[in-house]
Amino acid sequence: MSSGKKPRGLDQASQPRPPVGPLSTVECTPVAEALQTAPMGGFLRVVVLEQPRCRRTRVTLVRLIGMDPGVQRALRRAARKRRLYTETRRRGGRDWVNRGPCARFVQVRPGIVFVFRNAATLWPDLRAVSGVVGVLRTNKRVEVTRHV
Known about the structure:
By secondary structure, the protein is α+β, with helices and mostly antiparallel strands. The protein has a domain at 22-71 and 103-136. It has helices spanning 10-14, 31-37, 55-65, 69-84, 123-128; strands spanning 28-29, 43-48, 87-91, 94-98, 113-117, 133-136. Strands 1-6-2-5 form a four-stranded antiparallel beta sheet. The protein is elongated and about 60 Å long.
């Protein structure tokens, strides 16, 4: 029985998809070029251009987005609240703590802009996800969805 879906051809999968919506007007620098011109220790503004297809690319992006100062602030605030409202109960003559799950603030989807410091230790990660991200020029103001 056929499911009605057409199989993806190799030529269709190899073609890069153009950005849709507000991303179609964003001027991005390729990652390799941006790493050569960006000063060490300076900030890089990176935008996710398309949804990653494989799991390891998504995991690498989650790790890079987690370095954004806004995400780190939100995680610290959530941890502080979690410590404040942690439920404890007595069992066997001692306190047992029911810890809540850690927050997951990072979502990987097209249009997310994140910022982190340029360091040579992060270059292999950026090269690994260079197919789905672009580096924004810092002197241009861009209206793109913010993640936090």
